[in-house]
Amino acid sequence: MGSRGSRAAVIPDVDSIRRETGFSQACLLRLYHRFRALDRNKKGYLSRMDLQQIGALAVNPLGDRIIDSFFPDGSLRVDFSGFVRVLAHFRPIEEEDTGMRDPKQPEPLNSRMNKLRFAFQLYDLDRDGKISRQEMLQVLRLMVGVQVTEEQLESITDRTVQEADEDGDGAVSFLEFAKSLEKMNIEQKMSIRILK
Ligand SMILES: [Ca+2]
Ligand SMILES: [Ca+2]
């Protein structure tokens, strides 16, 4: 469809965004419409409040943390390419993504490793490369329901950290985190339908 193709041209830097994120042109166009609809005052960027309108994030216990990741380095606005770059971590891994990759190209944002890195930084609030017991406690508090007492929460936290903590330093490194999630299907868990 010619008219669709020419409309895609209005997306700034569309070619480099497509290469970096792996989203198809049609998908980027839909995301661009979504971006513009979320941008309530037609500012050209999104604020935290704009992103809070996304239903899938509103119901996600880690939704606020995911929203944080749109604003690295304390910035208060995210443009379209930043928006799509975060969303790319949630793009399902497709059959066609595997095997065909040029090894000189950077790893796709939706690879298992990048999904794990993204998940890890939702826990590692102070970005020191380790999930401390306190950081684990905070995430578990968000994820478990109100029916759990503080005491139970503390013991769940201790167990979770102990199970993952192989070198016994009392914290969970990225490697330990990746290992402990090995049995979980992270690819599937980190594939959210963002357009619904
Ligand atoms: Ca930390
Ligand atoms: Ca450790």
Automatic annotation (TrEMBL):
GO biological process: cellular response to calcium ion; positive regulation of calcineurin-NFAT signaling cascade; positive regulation of cell population proliferation; positive regulation of protein import into nucleus; positive regulation of transcription by RNA polymerase II; protein transport
Cell compartment(s), UniProt: Cell membrane; Cytoplasm; Nucleus
Alphabetically ordered keywords of this record: Calcium, Cell membrane, Cytoplasm, Lipoprotein, Membrane, Metal-binding, Myristate, Nucleus, Phosphoprotein, Protein transport, Repeat, Transport
PROSITE patterns: EF_HAND_1, EF_HAND_2
CDD domains linked: EFh
InterPro entries to which the protein is assigned, alphabetical: Calcineurin_B_homologous, EF-hand-dom_pair, EF_Hand_1_Ca_BS, EF_hand_dom
Keyword Amino-acid biosynthesis belongs to the record: no
Domain EF-hand: 111-146, 152-187
SMART domains: EFh
Protein name: Calcineurin like EF-hand protein 2
